[in-house]
Amino acid sequence: MLLPAIFSLLASDGNGTSFGFPALGAMILGTILFYLTRNPGSYILRQDVFLIVVLGWLGVATIGALPFFISGLMGPVDAFFESMAGFTTTGASTIRVPEEVAPSLLLWRSMTQWTGGIGIVLLFVAVAPIVGFGATQLYSAEIAAPVAERITPRIQDTAKVLAYIYGALTLGGVAALLLAGMGPFDALNHALTTVSSGGFSTRADSIAAFDSWGVDLFVVVGMVLSGINFTLYFHAVQGRLGRILENRELLAYLGLIVAGTAVMTISLYAFDYHDSPIVAFREALFQSASLLSGTGFSTADWKVWDLLSQGLLMIFMAIGAMAGSTSGGLKVIRVLLLVRHGVQEVFRMVHPQAVTPLKLGNRVIPERLRTAFLGFFFVYAATLAVGTLLMALHGIPLGTAFGAVFACLNITGASLGPVGDPVFYAALPASAKLILSLFMLLGRLELFTVLVLLTPAFWRS
pTM for the whole thing? Predict the structure, then answer.
């Protein structure tokens, strides 16, 4: 918070204390907790890890909400909702006209998404070797990838490598947007929220406000890159291009963008942009990259497009990008394995005695992971159903209730109908905003890290 505090003083927008007091309070609280719990000989249990991650995210979102509240921009519930939407990179917002908000608060809002993208706990693991044995479990709980992959022998070094890659992509994004003609403030904010696949913008019309082919292209590249597993960048730096080209999830991810863009271009040209196939391609490419990566930027009102295009974009939001990226959703690798599992079940109907191991490329997937993918899909669907019913209890129409939960669980912030519009989120009752905040956390930590805390077995053990 010291960075936006300094920026506020330089910009003279009167919000220096809105950041200064929470920053000071966080430092005091952190110091007290550190010395109360400092015990180099302690061992962090697996149960402790889940509790640390969930309480850490809740604590950070609560403290992160204070500048919005102290500045008078919004009430406490809206401030917590905005903060949680930032740190989880959901991008849902109650701010209707960002241009009327103080620049330091906009910068802080973008910084919450940037910080949430790399992960509070991931950064903590990188700089805190005192975590000891718990570091590996913290990393696994935070990264929440279906197939964990460590790229260096030491977990702290792995986290640092990922942080360096993340920082390099951010700086590259700033430079590219400046080159495309954005102002420095807009370029910095949009680079922060692009690499994190967050989607917060300094403009009410999002990327459409800039009306620039160059800006659109660089943002598309940034969104696609943010949806790639960050370990692949490490392999690229090490010259292991073969491992990248053989990655089936990457090929499927890029294939979805290409196929989705092609289908939507044809559909948009036929139904919406009759006179301009170029404009149809531009809009289709941008929204495909935006919603598959879970960023949520827009250059057009895709909610009024033809039904085929809308349906494809909703499917993209559910799928999400690659595991090990900053996006949400089911993740491409899970969908790949679920499809292959379904094909195998059909094959077994004809050949019931056949032995058909589940494979991804040349790698045989253990049966434990097969059941984990199936279990995750069931819990994902059940969570959507329960969330929809909870929102419907507030008198929200069923379709809109489903859309709101869908947008928050997949951490895209947008869906069909009014969902995604700041007016919609601002008009929700306080209890509904808190429920959606919980679903943002569930989506960011991929369900099980949070849901395990609700089981009696967790507390008994």
Answer: 0.91
